[in-house]
Specification:
The complex is a heterodimer of chains A (221) and B (221). Chain A has 221 residues and is an alpha+beta fold. Chain A contains six helices and eleven strands. Chain A has one domain: Jelly Rolls. Chain A has a six-stranded antiparallel beta sheet, covered by helices on one side. Chain A has a three-stranded antiparallel beta sheet with strand order 7-6-9, with no helix packed on it. The two termini of chain A are 31 Å apart. Chain B is mostly helical and 221 residues long. Classes of the chains: A alpha+beta (221), B mainly alpha (221).
């Protein structure tokens, strides 16, 4: 997809992604954004070169010949050779990593009603810091106004939604922090599906928000 | 073992071959990229052995630089093996238009290093490997090799010229595998300072356009 996107991960995040130091949940979100964003993909090519150059300039550490022998023995075991083909994405419109998460958790992935207009499906990602999930907002659906208790990454995968500040379209990457209060609304012309990674439960602005508390617990898994 | 003289010659050619050269046909023609292509195309074992001799010690050095939690020196040769076997398996997918062999092998090494750490630390299995995060969409627009090459040269030339404090942080992030937050903690610097040093370094390498240049570009159009 070549449409110019408006909202990207910041450069620091891309550097961490290229260096491999970004945590798993955030990496899933960045990779989803890359599926849509040519500009960030191009930046990452250069950021990879930085890592490559640092590796290439380091003092080489002697490797024992036995390692070469065992690697050669291992690759002999691969005969007859078949080129490893890139796996085909399961759903071509979704980013590969997300498609793979969906197909891997097909047995356990279930949509649950969160509010009248929002459904959630939680992924198992084997880390404890973030709940990684898909959120589906129905067309024109209003979500409750809320604040954030921790970081929240969101990538729009399908359709669009808006809040008080702007409209977010397919591929847009959003970072919300504590103190960012907003009330997302689904676009009128169709449902919106987002990928999100949430570090802590959201904080409802409505004074009766505490009634919703049991539903808002996050579930990193 | 190489004799002293051969070593010097070897060092010399290495130095030249790291500079990604383009021949008249506009193809990448540095030694390592050509060898990697022939491993991919004809399963050339000799070419592979040459790549091994050059890259295995660099990958080992990259492995030993790791300061990740849970990493220990004994893993270094495991990583070398895993990376070089992957290089053999995936060489058919190497696209010299997109990256030099050094950059490509760096990405394999980075991905393997993260996967090894994730395998060690995850209580539950993450259904994704790090390379899944780098899967490119099918409709990927071809990169201009010339542009790519220019960017590689820029990175290479300016990396050596970086002020010590910027170089130090890039090494922490890319080689030691520290996040910006961890680097800031270790160096006793505010996170903002770490991020701005990284940003300045990226601007020097022209991966990021400096704000003042950005203004000029806008005025140009």
């Amino acid at each position: 997809m070549t449409t110019k996107l408006n909202y990207h991960p910041d450069h620091a995040m891309l550097v961490e992604f290229a260096a491999g130091t970004l945590d798993t949940a955030a990496s899933i979100c960045v990779s989803a954004h890359l599926h849509f964003c040519e500009q960030c993909r191009a930046e990452l090519l250069s950021l990879n070169e930085v890592g490559a150059q640092l590796m290439a300039e380091a003092t080489p550490e002697p490797v024992d010949d036995s390692v070469l022998d065992s690697v050669m023995a291992a690759i002999d075991g691969f005969k007859p050779f078949k080129a490893l083909k890139a796996e085909q994405p399961i759903s071509s419109s979704f980013p590969f990593s997300v498609s793979k998460l969906i197909s891997d958790s097909a047995a356990t992935l279930t949509w649950k009603r969160l509010t009248a207009s929002v459904d959630i499906a939680r992924f198992k990602t084997g880390q404890r810091a973030y709940e990684v999930a898909l959120h589906k907002i129905c067309a024109g659906g209003k979500t409750p106004k809320h604040d954030h208790n921790g970081l929240e990454f969101t990538v729009v995968l399908k359709g669009s939604f808006s809040d008080e500040r702007a409209v977010y379209r397919e591929g847009d990457f959003l970072l919300r922090q504590p103190g960012d209060v907003h009330q997302p609304m689904g676009a009128q012309n169709g449902e919106c599906i987002c990928l999100s990674a949430l570090a802590a439960p959201i904080k409802l602005s409505n004074p009766l928000g505490f009634l919703m508390k049991p539903w808002l617990r996050i579930n990193p898994m | 073992m190489l004799t002293k003289k051969e070593e010097i010659v070897d060092k010399h050619t290495e130095k030249n071959s790291r500079v990604a050269v383009l021949n008249l046909a506009g193809k990448r023609s540095d030694k390592w990229s050509l060898l990697l292509v022939s491993v991919g195309e004809t399963r050339d074992r000799q070419a592979f052995a040459q790549l091994f001799k050059h890259f295995a010690p660099l990958v080992k050095s990259f492995a030993q630089a790791s300061r990740h939690e849970g990493w220990f020196p004994g893993l270094s040769e495991d990583l070398v093996q895993e990376v070089m076997i992957k290089v053999w398996q995936k060489a058919a997918g190497y696209n010299p238009e997109k990256a030099s062999a050094t950059t490509w092998i760096y990405t394999v090494a980075r991905n393997c290093r993260i996967d090894m750490l994730r395998r060690k630390s995850n209580t539950q299995h993450l259904p994704l490997e790090n390379e899944d995060f780098w899967h490119e969409p099918d409709e990927e627009t071809p990169v201009s090799l010339l542009r790519q090459k220019r960017s590689e040269d820029k990175v290479q030339a300016s990396l050596a010229q970086l002020p010590k404090e910027q170089d130090e942080i890039l090494r922490k992030v890319y080689l030691e595998g520290k996040s910006h937050a961890e680097a800031s903690h270790e160096l006793g610097l505010p996170l903002g300072t770490v991020k701005s040093r990284v940003r300045l370094a990226l601007q020097k390498m022209q991966i990021l356009v400096a704000p003042e240049l950005q203004d000029e570009l806008i005025h140009d159009h």
